[in-house]
Write a structure and sequence with these properties.
The protein is mainly beta and 396 residues long. It has one domain. It has helices at residues 61-65, 104-112, 339-346, 352-368, 374-390; strands at residues 76-77, 83-89, 115-121, 127-133, 140-149, 154-163, 166-175, 180-189, 194-203, 208-217, 220-229, 235-244, 249-258, 264-273, 279-288, 296-305, 311-320, 327-335. It has a nine-stranded mixed β-sheet, with helices on one face. A nine-stranded mixed β-sheet has the order 2-3-5-7-9-11-13-15-17. The longest helix has 17 residues, at 352-368. It is globular, with a radius of gyration of 22 Å. The N and C termini lie far apart (47 Å).
């Protein structure tokens, strides 16, 4: 990261302000943010930093700066041909190949994990596996996972999270040439759970990733996925669906870096909020680098506020460093129910409360139905129905 030089003082210009009085110069390019695997390299988090200003940092203090248990934990992996899991040492060359931390919580996890969980995927036959974590417990914990997808391999990997947890972690996805991975990260934590995660994806030539984040549970959940489209014709689709209840904070900071030529990305996140203090945050950064000629990208975020007292923040950002692209765009919208949709349904005899549920159901199911796993889609649809049953009739 570069810092501005101090201007030369002349007789007509005032003396520069002391260094401690100057406002920090923001980093305008996402790829130029400071990164490190050591938590001590990051200053204390105040909540005024650009990457933390929307986050309830006081609630996450133990994960950002506290002592963490980095020992291996209990997990379950459903059997699938060509999918294996094992623990690897910190000095394994694959660790850090997809990305390294750009915030203190991610670095705290990196500094403290003892071994990384390696999930290896091979074979060109289509397969599905589920990695379940449901017994992490209450003490603050660090974790690191590496998902390595061999060239030409094709799989769906479900990361199922539930139960109690105070967890900060890093997850890396390494996709070889022409690999195809659908990864679905499902957060159904207990109501008081805390979860901070950084997901890094590195895509070789012709690789494709569909990353789906579904967050329905947890007190504070901050899941930040990033995709580096390094190889030519790499393709990334980042999808998200979330439902925030009273006092629940759900946050996503998405980053897509187009680096190779003729790469493509689509980012679509949709969320619903209800209850006093329900809060969601979505920040989408797309960087088209100088070598990424022929890029085709679009990102969007939609939020549906169901009751008073809920708040959604949505910030799309787009930076282009080459003029030779196919297309680039972004969109963001936050609003309440569509009165015309409600009127249409009620005019056909559907009661208002049921009409509201139908609107929200269709709004979120657009994301869920793109997962590609019928059993998981059905289960998530039932979970969303349960959320809707709590109270959508209070919307104004």
């Amino acid at each position: 990261m570069t810092t501005p030089s101090t201007p030369t003082q002349t007789q007509d210009s005032p003396a520069p302000a002391p260094t401690h009085m100057r406002a920090p110069v923001p980093v305008q390019t996402r790829s130029e943010r400071f990164t490190s695997t050591q938590v001590a390299d990051f200053p204390d988090v105040t909540g005024r930093e650009v990457m933390w200003k929307h986050t309830p940092v006081a609630r996450l203090a133990e994960l950002i700066s506290g002592e963490l248990d980095g020992s291996p934990y209990v997990f379950d992996l459903t059997p699938a041909p060509g999918v294996t899991a094992s623990w690897i040492a910190r000095d394994d060359a694959r660790i850090g190949a997809a990305g390294i931390p750009e915030d203190r919580a991610s670095a705290n996890a990196w500094t403290n994990f003892e071994q990384a969980l390696l999930v290896s995927v091979s074979g060109d036959d289509v397969k599905e596996a589920t990695l379940t974590r449901a017994a992490l417990g209450g003490p603050a914990r660090a974790a690191h996972t590496v998902v390595e997808v061999a060239p030409g391999a094709h799989a769906t990997l479900i990361l199922q999270n539930s139960g109690p947890a105070h967890l900060t972690e890093n997850v890396e996805f390494l996709l070889g040439a022409n690999a195809n991975l659908t990864v679905v990260s499902v957060q159904e934590w207990d109501d008081d759970a805390l979860h901070v995660a950084a997901h890094f994806a590195e895509l070789a030539e012709g690789a494709r990733i569909k990353h789906v984040a579904v967050t329905l549970g947890g007190g504070v959940v901050r899941l930040n996925p990033s995709a580096h489209l390094a190889g030519a014709r790499a393709d990334a689709e980042l999808l998200g669906a979330y439902f925030a209840d009273a006092s629940q904070h759900l946050e996503q900071q998405v980053y897509v870096h187009h680096d190779g030529p003729e790469t493509r990305s689509r980012v679509t996140y949709k969320g619903a909020l209800q209850g006093e203090g329900a809060r969601t945050v979505w920040i989408g950064d797309v960087l088209i680098g100088p070598k990424a000629v022929g890029t085709d990208t679009y990102e969007q975020n939609r939020n549906l506020v169901l009751t008073d007292g809920a708040r959604a923040d949505s910030v799309p950002n787009l930076e282009i460093e080459t003029g030779d692209i196919v297309g680039a765009g972004h969109a963001s919208a936050t609003g309440r129910f569509d009165d015309e949709q409600l009127f249409y349904l009620q005019s056909r005899g559907i009661p208002e409360d049921e009409a509201r549920r139908l609107v929200v159901r269709g709004f979120l199911f657009e994301i869920v139905q793109q997962i590609g796993s019928p059993a998981l889609q059905e289960r998530l649809q039932s979970a969303i129905e349960a959320e809707l049953a709590v109270s959508v009739t209070a919307a104004s």
